[in-house]
Design goal:
heterodimer; A: Fumarate Reductase Iron-sulfur Protein, Chain B, domain 2; 4 domains; five-stranded parallel sheet; 32% helix; globular; B: mainly alpha; 6 helices; binds flavin-adenine dinucleotide; binds iron/sulfur cluster; iron-sulfur (chain A); Oxidoreductase (chain A); iron (chain A); 4Fe4S_Fe_S_CS (chain A); metal-binding (chain A)
Chain lengths: 604, 161
């Protein structure tokens, strides 16, 4: 039996019945203060499902749940909140990468079903969804930095008379600050064609563990020196940080890791094939990123791989297309050295279809991979393009890399508005500066600036270097001198203004203003409009035997052609960039490897 | 030569027959070309041959239609573009082993000629059935030319980044 006090105390409470209460008896209907942190709202269109709110919540009150299919930059997940756990601290609102998550000032909710208090704001309709009052973070994100750390670059006057690398690379301090902005949401991974494990290698930078970072890079990409410099960085367009700020400099961070691991150490970390030789042979045609990635994977599976390359050095367009000021040859060589160390034989100066036929490759190997890229430069074929003084961009770029003599007149005109056009324009500008002390390059593009194909930074840097860019011009004729001692030489390009380039459905339908005709003076015209694959190497019989898909070799999802011994990868079938070629190389290697494995099983 | 037959005026039937001949010639030209081009670009020539055949069929149906029959003898002013049009009927200046770009440029040039021909015919006929027919044909050519231009851009202005 308890004390007398225990028995009487319930009754003593009654004495308060006649007192005025300090809290109101029925709070329903009483509005909270304007900025009160009440129930959550989420603008479902704005939210990208990055899960930063889930990570920050100290009470584990948030679960990310699927509500739609994932697309680039949106996981399709949305936060589900458990009011049995939430303490309304609003950290989730403060960290939200898009500002989609807010709190209304509603704070009363009566329900007999305990499960009702776990809900997906913005998806499960609630009476407070449209309330204006409540708590929202003022200004931009503060918990995660919004601004990207600037990359050091050579100034235009310091770079215009040489091919030195423009980009300096991050210092350790810069990389740490940049890496710290990443919330490790992983939204970027799906957008990267090779699905590189971006959040984990960025986390390795934060930890200062570059060996681990390098190991993670090599899991998906043997070309991190290259991609750390020239990757088209589609991942950055999906980065959570681009909302209310700059995307994380994923490409520069990748480069920072390779900058911090010596070549010898890389070989130690990556190692060499750990399997017994299978005695299966694979021939790869073309030593670009697609062929070399496939070679790397297949060699590590224990197969004997020979890569045949027409040029004197391996690398494909990474060496013979991309100029040295964007990608130094030494950096490319470091990536290739790790691949060669896997036992891959690279036979340069051998053009398949000439020195060795496809038939012979087929007879001498268990599988053949075609990764020949796009090495025929397209021409507009407007009048005047035939004859001296007209070049294609990729041929000129190749000759510059090979150290061959190229014509460097004082005034050059480039036709084309893509990155290749910018590459040749900027290369010619450098050569002109050295030879003539001045830059005289004009780029004319069909597209207007709003539809330009080249990257914004390429355009900006070209302009900084003194390249003139004229948009919306349709080339009509390469005009040549008709008489005098320069008869037959190029005088310039005649063009018409393009009044519109695409129709309302976004299809190419150029409209010209013939009244607005101009002659752009130039001693040389360079065409940089497009490229094609040289499939003539296949020979007539194989070309006939193979299936084609609207001009390109038809391949299945694994990259296999209609001939069971032949695979194709890279620009020649997919494109358009190094990382897509790398992804293709992996895909093809997996398929070839599976076939070789099956052959091994049968042999046993 | 068809150019010799030209006079200022012609009947609707003559004009449509000339147009059909233009497409028939093109169809047999493309059909002959199919085995000559390499397999990778054969689709292009096959597509063009199919489009021309569809044209021939459409024109033949048109001539047979009861509405049209009453107008076949209507006099029409020959278009200025007619000479170029008639020349193009039998002037395929395309080598024996053309590549995709040559085929496309050739096809585009033909579309342009046909487009001009129909536009002028439409302009030369007063409102009524014939005017509608030629306007329709001009629109068809405009659409086909737009398709070809889009394809040209896709094929020729492509590759790399
Ligand atoms: C000027 C320029 C700039 C570019 N800039 C960028 C950039 O900044 N970022 C980016 O990501 N991508 C860029 N690209 C695109 C990128 O270089 C390509 O997407 C990529 O290199 C394609 O790889 P691949 O292996 O398919 O072909 P390639 O790199 O073209 O390699 C194919 C190789 O096959 C060889 N070959 C061809 N035929 C034969 C044969 N018969 N026998 C033996 N060998 C043969 C070629 O010599 C070549 O070495 C650029 C391309 C160009 C042209
Ligand atoms: S308000 Fe605080 S406790 Fe509630 S879900 Fe957000 S972070 Fe978690
Ligand atoms: S942090 Fe914001 S954007 Fe990201 S999932 Fe949460 S609510 Fe959505
Ligand atoms: S880089 Fe951007 S998208 Fe990728 S994990 Fe970091 S914050 Fe997320």
């Amino acid at each position: 039996m308890g004390s007398l006090r225990d028995v009487l105390s319930p009754f003593t409470a009654w004495k308060h019945v006649i007192e005025t209460p300090v809290t109101i008896r029925n709070p329903i209907g009483r509005e909270a203060a304007d900025g009160y942190r009440g129930f959550h709202q989420n603008d479902i269109e704005k939210c990208i499902g990055c899960g930063s709110c889930e990570v920050i919540c100290q009470n584990a009150a948030i679960d990310m749940v699927p509500v739609s299919d994932p697309v680039d930059g949106d996981s399709g997940l949305r936060p589900k909140i458990d009011y049995g756990r939430c303490c309304w601290c609003a950290l989730c609102v403060d960290v939200c990468m898009t500002g989609s998550l807010t709190m209304s000032n509603e704070y009363t909710w009566v329900d007999t079903d305990p499960d009702a208090f776990r809900f997906i704001p913005g998806v499960d309709p609630k009476p407070w969804d449209d309330l204006e009052k409540g708590y929202r973070r003022e200004g931009g994100r503060v918990l995660t930095g919004a601004e990207r750390v600037e990359m050091g670059e050579l100034a235009p006057e310091a770079r215009i008379d040489n091919f030195d690398e423009i980009v300096a690379g991050y210092t350790r301090e810069q990389a740490m600050i940049e890496a710290d902005r990443c919330v490790e949401c992983g939204l970027c991974v799906a957008t990267c064609p090779a699905h590189m494990d971006i959040p984990d290698y960025i986390a390795a930078i934060r930890e200062g563990d570059y060996d681990l970072g390098l190991q993670i890079l090599y899991e998906t990409n043997p070309f991190s020196e290259v991609c750390g410099r020239v990757c088209t960085h589609k991942c950055e367009t999906a980065c959570a940080a681009r909302h209310e700020g700059d995307p994380i400099a994923i490409r520069w961070l990748k480069r920072h890791i390779v900058d911090n691991v010596s070549e010898d150490r890389r070989l130690e970390i990556v190692g060499t094939p750990q399997t017994l030789p299978t005695r299966r042979k694979v021939a790869i045609v073309g030593a670009g990123p697609a062929g070399l990635t496939a070679a790397y994977d297949l060699a590590r599976q224990g197969h004997a791989v020979t890569v045949y390359e027409a040029q004197d050095k391996p690398g494909g367009m990474m060496r013979f297309g991309i100029p040295e000021y964007r990608l130094p040859y030494a950096a490319l060589d470091r990536d290739i050295a790790v691949i060669a160390a896997q036992g891959v034989k690279i036979e340069t100066g051998v053009r398949i279809g000439h020195e060795i036929t496809m038939d012979r490759l087929r007879a001498e190997n268990d599988a053949v991979v075609l990764s020949i890229g796009l090495h025929i430069g397209r021409s507009t074929r407007i009048p005047g393009t035939e004859g001296g003084g007209v070049e294609t961009a990729i041929d000129l770029l190749r000759r510059i890399t090979a150290g061959e003599e190229v014509p460097v007149p004082k005034q050059v005109l480039v036709i084309g508005g893509g990155n290749v056009a910018m590459d040749i324009a900027r290369s010619m500008a450098r050569l002109q500066k050295v030879k003539h002390g001045a830059v005289g390059v004009t780029v004319t593009a069909l597209e207007d600036f709003a539809h330009f194909l080249a990257d914004r930074e390429e355009i900006e840097e070209s302009l900084e270097e003194g390249v003139e860019i004229i948009d919306a011009r349709g080339p009509q004729e390469v005009v040549r001198f008709k008489s005098g001692n320069r008869k037959g030489e190029v005088k310039g390009l005649r063009s018409w203004a393009v009044t519109s380039i695409f129709d309302d459905k976004g299809r190419f339908a150029p409209q010209y203003d013939q009244g607005d005709e101009r002659l752009h003076p130039a001693e040389m015209v360079v065409e940089a409009i497009g490229q094609a694959a040289d499939v003539s190497i296949l020979g007539e019989d194989l070309t006939e035997a193979l299936d084609w898909n609207r001009g390109r070799l038809a391949v299945d999802v694994a990259g296999r052609t209609s001939e069971p011994w032949l695979w194709a990868a890279g620009d020649a079938v997919h494109g358009p960039d190094v990382i897509t070629a790398v992804a293709d190389g992996h895909r093809v290697a997996a398929s070839v490897g599976a076939m070789l494995m099956a052959m091994g099983e049968v042999a046993r | 030569m068809k150019t010799e037959k030209l006079s200022q005026m012609a009947t609707a039937e003559e004009v449509i027959e000339a147009v059909a001949e233009f497409s028939r010639e093109a169809h047999s030209f493309y059909t002959d070309l199919v085995p000559k081009v390499t397999k990778d670009i054969r689709y292009l020539v096959e597509d063009l041959a199919r489009a021309e055949l569809a044209h021939v069929r459409m024109l033949s149906d048109l001539m047979k239609s009861p509405d049209m029959r009453d107008h076949l003898k209507d006099a029409i002013r020959r278009p200025e573009a007619d000479r170029r049009f008639s020349d193009a009927v039998q002037a395929p200046e395309l080598g024996d082993k053309p590549d995709d770009q040559q085929v496309l440029q050739y096809a585009l040039a033909r579309e342009q000629v046909a487009l001009e021909e129909f536009s002028e015919l439409a302009a030369n006929t007063p409102p009524g059935l014939l005017h509608e027919v030629f306007s329709f044909l001009a629109n068809e050519e405009t659409r086909q030319k737009a398709d070809l231009e889009a394809l040209y851009y896709e094929i020729v202005h492509s590759g790399g980044v």
